[in-house]
Amino acid sequence: MAIKPKYIKQLGNVLIQEYPDSFNTDFETNKESVEALTTVESKGVRNRIAGYVTRKKAQSAASAA
Q1: Residue 21 has what DSSP assignment?
Q2: Which has fewest Cβ within 10 Å: 13, 20, 21, 60?
């Protein structure tokens, strides 16, 4: 796993805390949610945040099962 920048992790964690029902383990859905909930203009940053959120949701789903 690559080390993600601090701002990616911080924004991803804030989004998960404030909008937990907006995200799931599907990257494409999360990408759209990040675009709708933030003002991030860069496609690369948006995808990194969506990827981080997807990974966190998958980890929490795996640990809950």
Answers
A1: G
A2: 21
CA atoms within 13 A of residue 64's CA, in its CB half-sphere:
6
Give the burial string for 38-58 (b: 16+ CB within 10 Å, else e): eebeeeebbbbbbbbbbbbbe
Q: CA 47, CA 22: separation in Å to the nearest integer?
A: 16
Please tell us whether the domain made up of 6-63 is placed in CATH 3.10.129.10.
no
pTM for this model (two decimals) = 0.91
Q: What is the pLDDT along the chain (65 residues), one digit of tens a residue?
A: 577 899 999 999 999 999 999 999 999 999 999 999 999 999 999 999 999 999 999 998 888 77
Residue pair 20/64 in contact (Cβ under 8 Å)? The answer is no
